[in-house]
Input
Amino acid sequence: MVNSAKFAKDGLIISVIDGNEIAIPDDMANRHRAMIAEWVAAGNEIEPYVPDPLPEPVIVIPAVTLWERMTDAEAIQVNDAMAAQPIRTRQIFLTANTFRSDHELWPLLQQVAATLFGVERAAELLA
Output
């Protein structure tokens, strides 16, 4: 008995038949594919293939580039905001060669920039 069926990336159908997961070619000469056809005729559907979403690209900004993008006034504001952070965070920020969007402190950098300069300017600085 067919319990479920879903198309896979390579055109196979991944189906659970009698409790067992089976990869089945989309070929009506295959006995399991014929079972799925009967299952579909009874009102069931083969789920379509849905690709995994692409991961977000990682943004990498050299630290010097971030500071170069800021005006002197913006740099002073960022420095003051970072001075209020815990020592570990300050040291990471001060010694980093790059700022990466996959790093644990990226959301803090985004939040500080957005709070100080607005979302649009923050996006420009962190692009």
Summary: The chain has two domains: 2-41, 60-125. DSSP finds six helices and five strands in the chain. Residues 103 and 115 are 20 Å apart (CA to CA). The radius of gyration is 27 Å.
